[in-house]
Amino acid sequence: MKLCYRGVNYDYNPPSLEVRESELTGTYRGRSMNFSYVSHVPVPQPVANYTYRGVSYSTNVQGQIQPPTATLERLPVFAGRVAAAGTGLNARRHLLKDAAEAHRVNIQQSIQHRIEVARAQGNDQLLTQLEAEMHQLV
Prior knowledge:
Layout: E1 2-5, E2 8-11, E3 19-28, E4 31-38, E5 49-52, E6 55-59, E7 65-66, H1 79-85, H2 89-121, H3 124-137
Helix pairs in contact: 1-2, 2-3
């Protein structure tokens, strides 16, 4: 079909769908009618990675579940110490203590990096502030 839009001519070929008659019949305003449906409509399925209750899986284009790809499992940061500490309140105390220690070490590393950058830039005012902050942490 030849069409024209704002002076530009182009050919338009609408997609053709295969329609089939259904066994379903009905009545509308006193007249019987037959229903028809499209025999094949491609429905794209999402391709994504999902996690359900800690188990990872992925889906493909056909909507089928694929086995998980080989990935490195990440263990919790404090898994070894928590298991050794036992259960209950002691485990929670050890976990909180370890988390606080890890947080303090990360802050010290961040401040140390900022001190090195301040020295490289020759920023003496920032360097004195960062050194004072480092002494407060220790």
